[in-house]
Amino acid sequence: MQTPLAKRNSDTNRFKHTNEVDYNELLGDYLKKIQWRETQSIQECMSQLLSELVPFLGGVKATLYLAYNDSQTLKYLTGYGIDEKNTPSELKYGEDMVGQVAKTQKGIYQHYTNQAQLFTATISVSIRGVMVVPIVANHELVGVLEIALIKKINEQKYKFLQQLTQHIGFNLKIRRQEQALKLKNLELEKKNANITSSIRYAHTIQQAILPTKAFLDKIFAEHFVIYQPKDIVSGDFYWVGDVSVNIKDKLKIKKRLVIAVMDCTGHGVPGSMMSMVGNTLLNQIVKEQHNHDAKSIMLALHHKIREALRQEESDNQDGMDGGICVVDYLSNGTIEMTYAGAKRALLVARGESGQVRILKGDRTSLGGSFTPETKGVHNHTLTLKKGDVLYLTTDGLEDASCPLRKKYGFKKLADDLRKIMLSPLIHQKQILLQRLQKHQQGTPQRDDITMLAAKL
Fold first, then answer.
1. 3-class state of residue 389 by DSSP
2. Which terminus of the chain has a smaller tally of CB atoms within 10 A, N or C?
3. For the whole model, what pTM was predicted?
4. Based on the structure, what is the number of domains in the chain?
5. Each residue of 121-135: pLDDT tens digit?
């Protein structure tokens, strides 16, 4: 039993041996052969086509070149009945008969009365004629087909070939475009993989500057951190330092911690670079210069951002929002906490009263054209007890949207904390993440999310 492909080949062979050719039917048969198939390359498709087309036209050898109009060159694609080793792999427009057809986009047909005539430089064989036709799609040269004939071609076959080459032209153009697109996609995928790899390495570096879990376990009774970058790296960062060794009044103060959660301009790579700047500056201000006043730290950070980014002499307006707590453990057993915030509030869960206190930050940012000295940055001081919890956040959690574009909201966050404040912090983290997920309902994260909770 014949397969459909075998039947089509048989039909084509039938046309070779009969004088009654239905050229419309034959054209349809060839068009099926050049239809796009994922598993077949351009070269394989055209090679199969030439193996049937050339004998039908009375040819003995053929070459097919693809046109590259930008460089005005032709590059060999495939052939029929030729020695590819001796076939030029590239021709310039205007070079030889093939190049001349490429240059003028006009076909050439030469019939020889003497069989001793030789074909052009691309094919060497005794022939009766040579036919070179341009392959064009939308007035753009796509390729050139050259056929060595052992008998004269009639007008019907010549017109048939012209009609077929139009379809070949469109097919080749589309296939080459798809091939170029695939190569471009592969190139983009490779570049994206390299960029992603670099960003992941940057993520490793960023993680290295954040306080370790072991360190936080050591200085806090309990704690949790929610740290969810929108991208691989984050524009948020948190900073915690035990500066007890630098306390001046050690009789009054047994231990001092400085805690900061900051939200830098942007997210992703630009934001992460700002977070590295912020982390470095806090190390300088707090650990090297021994500045332990929350308000003073904020103002110093503002000036150092402007200095580090040369904002006096450039258009750079990057900066950060956030909050800083200075926690003093006094000798009398009480805890004195001072907070200063730039557009960020501090939530304090008072275990004894069962209330969540909100200390609002000032309406200014740090860095850029902001003027925290003029607008004012203020210290807020509370006397706390062991078991009280501090919650420092960036705006990422409260700004998280649902499908209806409704934000989670700071009020809802405060209400949630009031309901769960007596639970262990590890459980609080799980509950908050579940409620955040329920609110988002699959909506993509729009900003970096950071929350640090510390039980004193």
1. strand
2. N
3. 0.70
4. 2
5. 454 556 788 999 999
